[in-house]
Write a structure and sequence with these properties.
Elements: H1 4-23, H2 26-32, H3 66-88, H4 92-95, H5 99-105, H6 111-132, H7 144-154, H8 157-170, E1 175-181, E2 187-193, E3 204-210, H9 217-220, H10 224-232, H11 237-250
Antiparallel strand pairs: 1-2, 1-3
The structure holds manganese (III) ion.
């Protein structure tokens, strides 16, 4: 059963994307919104595909190394996409559902199918968000209503960063730390295990730090704190700001 709040949340995401595509011409969009949009899971359908990285594998050096980026995208992310497609191959009933619907409703299915969809659908969505929030020449400062919301909900941008870093350090085993906002626009930092996406907690993700060992072990080994510091050097806060500001406008 999907709660009304979650139903509204789904519509909210869709309305946000719709406003952007219908009310702005391609030229206007280029001038007002030059950053990539975070993927909208309500618009992703079977068969799912691996999105290309929006930069070269070596582009985030020296912070995130070429070999890790290559394996992370071509092997780990690709495996989530392939396993998700494989799980739906013989399920025409599920092939009609968006990735958002699959993730919100998978608990209604047999436990093994539900687990496969959550792990691989979540993995696909989380990594699709991850790649677009990073940039070789990142904007270092949050902008617009998002900057004000950070101050309101954390005290300052620096305090928000500290909370996110601490959360990423605190994840036990495999998982992610996320900066999210809820239906009311309130920002929060949460940790989620495995590939559980913030969506299933009725949270809209803005930035996730992947602290699975595959994300950093080749270069940083057990030095997770160094990885988190390096990672944050590649975050494009203009993209993250835009993701919040566009959604706030759609409210
Ligand atoms: Mn990963």
């Amino acid at each position: 059963m999907i709660s009304r709040r979650k139903f509204l949340w789904g519509s909210f995401l869709t309305i946000g994307a719709g406003l952007l595509s219908q009310n702005t011409s391609a030229t206007e969009r280029k001038t007002t919104s030059q950053k990539p949009l975070l993927p909208n899971p309500a618009q992703l359908f079977y068969p799912f595909s691996l999105p290309p990285l929006p930069y070269a594998y070596e582009a985030l050096e020296p912070y995130l190394d070429t070999q890790t980026m290559t394996l992370h995208h071509q092997k780990h992310h690709a495996a989530y996409v392939n396993n998700l497609n494989k799980a739906l191959e013989t399920r025409q009933d599920l092939q009609q559902l968006s990735l958002q619907e699959l993730l919100l409703r998978c608990h209604e299915l047999a436990p093994e199918v539900a687990k496969t969809i959550l792990n691989n659908g979540g993995g696909h969505l989380n990594h699709s968000i991850l790649w677009v929030t990073l940039h070789p020449q990142p904007e270092k400062t949050p902008q617009g209503p998002f900057a004000e919301a950070l101050q309101r909900d954390f005290g300052s941008f620096a305090q928000a960063l500290e909370k996110l870093q601490n959360a990423a350090m605190s994840v036990f085993g495999s998982g992610w730390a996320w900066l999210c906002f809820d239906y009311d626009g309130k920002l929060s930092v949460v940790t989620l295990p495995n590939q559980d996406p913030p969506l299933i907690q009725s949270l809209n993700p803005l930035l996730g730090i992947d602290v699975w060992e595959h994300a950093y072990y080749l270069k940083f080994q057990n030095r997770r704190a160094d990885y988190i510091t390096a990672f944050l050097n590649t975050v494009d806060w203009a993209t993250v700001s835009q993701a919040y500001n566009l959604s706030a406008l759609a409210c």
